[in-house]
Design a protein that fits this description.
By secondary structure, the chain is α/β, with parallel strands linked by helices. It contains 8 helices and 7 strands; from the N terminus they run E-H-E-H-E-H-E-H-E-H-E-H-H-E-H. The N and C termini lie far apart (about 60 Å).
Length: about 260
């Protein structure tokens, strides 16, 4: 069998880095796309090549349709096919409605939503030609749980959820599955400051009592891109440690501690 070719946007840092390595471990040729951090890209490329010799990193801002198209075209030129797209690129930022500018709103929608739309649109012809494919989008718990200061971020991720569902419907006839992973709080550089500021409060809302790791998210994405997930499409799957699934999750920990001391 030919090796599957995967594109991972935002693929050199945080969750994207873990996803790129996970897919390489699974035997894929991985093209990890980054926007500006050359040092992280260079380091990751060395790690990827130890797992999958043909893998590479590519520089480009996929929030624009032209650049997104060029990235996909370049991958197709290099390897003749595109089998997997992981739309991981994104930004996380707080901004209250009264403080929000048009420029801010455009930026967060461009990076978090439009980049996924443009990349999805660009890979469709290649996946059709190959007879199928896997598209996995980065959603968020914030796409359906409202949080003060996150109207821009939440709206961008809610848009990703709808893109995922409609994409699954439109691309199903071509054996292309479209799913999304919806992280809660994954401890990366992007969320570190928030965790430091209010992490003690937030972890109380998690059934598993801990923040997620990039590897937790990567394991889910690895499954969604696998052959075993061939009958799964249109799903937005949480990877959040049970955050907000039940009220007062911390009470179970208090009880468990009390029982352990008896």
């Amino acid at each position: 069998m030919e090796r599957r070719v995967a594109i991972v946007t935002g693929g050199t840092r945080g969750m994207g880095r873990a996803i790129s390595l996970e897919l390489a471990k699974r035997g894929c040729v991985v093209c990890a796309v980054y926007r500006s951090d050359k040092e992280s890209a260079k380091k990751l490329e060395g790690e990827l090549k130890k797992l999958s010799e043909e893998s590479c990193t590519l520089c480009g801002d996929v929030s624009g349709q032209e650049t997104a198209g060029r990235i996909v075209e370049r991958v197709a030129e290099l390897f003749g096919r595109v089998d997997i797209l992981v739309n991981n690129a994104g930004i996380f930022d707080f901004c209250y409605i009264e403080d929000m500018t048009e420029e801010y709103l455009d930026r967060i929608l461009n990076v978090n939503f439009k980049s996924q739309f443009f990349m999805m649109k660009a890979v469709i012809p290649y996946m059709k030609k190959a007879g199928g494919g896997r598209i996995v989008n980065a959603s968020s718990i914030s796409g359906h749980f409202a949080d003060c200061g996150l109207v821009g971020y939440g709206a961008s991720k809610a848009s990703v959820d709808m893109l995922t569902k409609i994409g699954a419907g439109e691309l199903g006839p071509y054996h292309i599955t479209v799913n999304a992973y919806a992280p809660g709080i994954i401890h990366t550089d992007m969320t570190h400051e928030m965790i430091c500021e209010r992490g003690d409060e937030q972890v109380r809302d998690m059934c598993l009592g801990r923040f997620g790791t990039p590897e937790d998210a990567a394991a889910l994405v690895g499954f969604l891109t696998s052959e075993e997930a061939g009958y799964l499409t249109g799903e937005i799957i949480g990877i959040d440690g049970g955050m907000f699934k039940v009220q007062n999750a911390y009470l179970a920990y208090k009880r468990a501690e009390a029982l352990d001391t008896e």
